């Protein structure tokens, strides 16, 4: 019976850890930049293996391919930049005045982007550890 009690205690500790993740800082880690100019393009949201939505202060031209970079938290002393190309599929006004929601599909570096999508889903999910 103590094995079940230990498992229950571990599950509760895991749940407290997951609930303690600071989500309000996500925008600091999912900023997208233009690869050529280094200019901020917006904040990534609604990430999937094939694309994402960008919340941007500017509208973008549809059906255009953009070379982008996602600056992730550093790995040790090294910068952690994920370069990729994406095509703008749709653009609409966001609920926040002066911002736009832009749907992109990944056209280059899709495999690495898919790995990022899966890692983010695991990190921010509230799934039971056995189900994850």
Helix tally?
2
CATH level 4 superfamily: predicted glycosyltransferase like domains
- Average predicted confidence as pLDDT: 76
> How far apart are the first and last residues' alpha carbons, in Å?
25 Å
* Computed Rg: 18 Å
Tell me about the largest β-sheet: 6 strands, antiparallel, barrel
* SS strand fraction: 35-45%
**Helix percentage:** 25-40%
SS class: alpha+beta
If you consult CATH, what is the topology? Thrombin, subunit H
- Poorly predicted residue ranges: 2-24
Strand order of the largest sheet: 1-2-3-6-5-4
Task: Give the total of beta strands.
Answer: 6
Number of domains: 1
- Rough shape? globular
Q: Name the CATH architecture.
A: Beta Barrel
Provide the CATH top-level class: Mainly Beta
Which sequence of SSEs, written as H and E, runs from N to C?
HEEEEEEH
What would your notes on this structure say?
It holds the Pfam family PilZ. The protein is an alpha+beta fold. It has one domain: predicted glycosyltransferase like domains (Thrombin, subunit H), CATH 2.40.10. Helix content is 25%, strand content 39%. Strands 1-2-3-6-5-4 form a 6-stranded antiparallel barrel. The N terminus is likely disordered.
Quick gist of this model?
With 132 residues, the protein is of the alpha+beta class.
Give descriptors for this structure:
132 residues; alpha+beta; six-stranded antiparallel barrel; PilZ_domain
């Amino acid at each position: 019976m103590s094995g079940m009690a230990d498992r229950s205690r571990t599950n509760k500790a895991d749940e407290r850890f997951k609930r303690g993740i600071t989500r309000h800082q996500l925008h600091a880690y999912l900023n997208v930049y233009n690869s050529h100019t280094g200019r901020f393009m917006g904040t990534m949201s609604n990430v999937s293996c094939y694309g994402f939505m960008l919340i941007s202060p500017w509208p973008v031209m549809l059906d255009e391919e953009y070379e982008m970079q996602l600056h992730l938290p550093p790995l040790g002393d090294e910068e952690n930049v994920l370069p990729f190309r994406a095509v703008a599929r749709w653009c609409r006004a966001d609920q926040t005045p002066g911002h736009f929601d832009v749907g992109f599909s990944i056209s280059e570096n899709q495999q690495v982007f898919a790995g990022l999508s899966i890692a983010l889903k695991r990190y921010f999910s509230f799934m039971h550890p056995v189900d994850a």
